[in-house]
Amino acid sequence: MSHITLKASTLLEATLKSLLPAAVSAQCTRNHFLGDRSALQAALKSLFGSSTENSARLLLVSDGVHKLSGDAQANVDDFFKQLCTDSELPFEFLDISSVLSCRPEEVHASVEAVSVLKGKLHQRTPAPVVVLGSGSLTDVVKHTLFELGWSGVPFVVLPTALTVTAFTSHFAVLEESGAKRTRLSRTVDHCLWYAPVLSAAPQAMTRAGYGDLLARFVAYGDWYLGWKLGVAERYDELAFHLMEPFSGHLRRHAGALQQWPVSAEAIEDLAAILAMAGIAMSVSGETTPLSGYEHTISHALDYLHLTSGHALSWHGEQVALASLASAESYDQLLSLEKIDFQNVRPVSEERIKRTITQLLQTAPYFGFEESELTPEQRKSRLEALQPGIAKATLLFTEDYRKKHEKWLRARENITSFEENWISIREHLRMLVIPAAEMQSLIVAAGLPLVPEQTSQPTSALEYRWALRFAPFVRSRVSLADFIFWLGEDPALWATV
Length: 496
Ligand SMILES: [Zn+2]
Hints:
By secondary structure, this protein is α/β, with parallel strands linked by helices. Helix content is 53%, strand content 8%.
C-alpha cells in the first residue's frame, strides 16, 4: 500500500514504532491530533486529571499576541483559560511579553529572554507548564525549564501555528549577539495539535512552516558530504528513513497552502510531518538532518537584520528560498565529474580571521538604504553598530576555528574523497532533489522565489552577502564550506 493513502498522523505512529526501539520512542514528544474542543478537553483531562487529584496549578504561558482560536468568541489565550476553568483545572497565566517588558510581537528566542524568565521562575516550586504559542516562545520556555532543572513536571505545548520544528525537538535555537545558536534543551512531553487554532493561523505562517520542511530535501546531502570529507564526526540515515515516508504528503500538500483556511486534511498531515521532523532531529542527537547550508543562509540574514534592528522575515520562508539556493548549488556539484582540492591552497587561520572581520564590517546592514548612503553616512551609522559587530566577530571566529582545524586534518586524506567521488555523487543524488523540483514546490506553495518577496523584503545584496557568509555562520560543515574549500564563491553557485 502506498504511504500517501495513509493519514500522516497514522504514518507517524507506525513509522516511529517500526524504526525506533521502544525505549527511544518513550523519550520522544507524544503527539495528539485534536479536531474539536471536546477532544482537546478530553486530552487535557487525561494529561492533568482534575483539580482534586492534582493540586499544583498549571502555569499557562503565552506571548500575549492576539491570535484567533477558531472560536469566533475568543482569542487563543481566552479560549484556553475558559477551557481550563470548564475542566476545573486551576491555572496561573503568565504573559511573557510583560515579563520581558517588550511588545507581544517582539518576543523572540534569545539567551537574554531565557535569563529574564529564569529570574522570574527560579524561586518557585516547579509546576506543570502549558505553552500556548509560537516556536520562539516554545524555545524560550523549554530552554528556561532545562536550565532551571524542571524535569519532573509535565511540559505541554499547544502550537498556535505550523511554523517550525521547535514543538517536538530537544533543541532550542537561541540568539546571542545576533548569532543563532542551537542548544540542547528540555523535551516537550506532549504536543497538542489542535486543528481549529492551526487552521485559523495566518496563511503566511503555515506556508513558512512548510518552507522549513523543504530543508529535508537538501540538508541531508550536507551531512553526508561533511562525513565523507572527514569533517563531520558521525553520520547515520535514521532521520532520513523517519522522514522519507512523508515525502509524498509533503509534495502533495504544497498546493493546499494557496487556500485559507488551509484544509483540515492538509493541516493534520503537515502537523504530523513537523512533529516527525522535530523527533527525527532529537533522536539523531543533532539538528543536522534538517538544518544545513539553507539554515546558515537564513541565520546569516537574521544576523544582518538583528544587528541593524530590522524586523525578521518568517524563518521558514527564508529557509525555503535558501533551500532553492542549496538545490541549485547541488545541481552544480552533481554535474562535476571530478573533484580536485589539490590545486587549492589551504587558507591560514589568520586569513580566515581577516575574511570574517572584513565580511562583517562590509555587510549590507542597511538593506535597501545601502545604495542611497554616502560613504560618510554609512560610516557614522555603522559606528553605532560596532559593539554588536565586535561581539559577533569573536563568536563567529571562535566557532569557525573549530571547523577549520577539522578541515586541515581531513585534508590530509582528501585523495580518498577525490577517488571515490563518482560513488559519493551517486549517493548524494538519492539524498537531495534537483533545483527544478524544489522550485516547483516553492511556487506551488506560494512561497517567495526571490528575496525581495519575503515578508520583510530583503535586497539582493543582502541575500548574496548571506550566501557568501554562510560558511562562517557555525562550526558545522555544510555545502557552503565545500564550495569555499574548493576556492569558489557560494554566491556564484546559486542563481538568485
Ligand atoms: Zn528551521
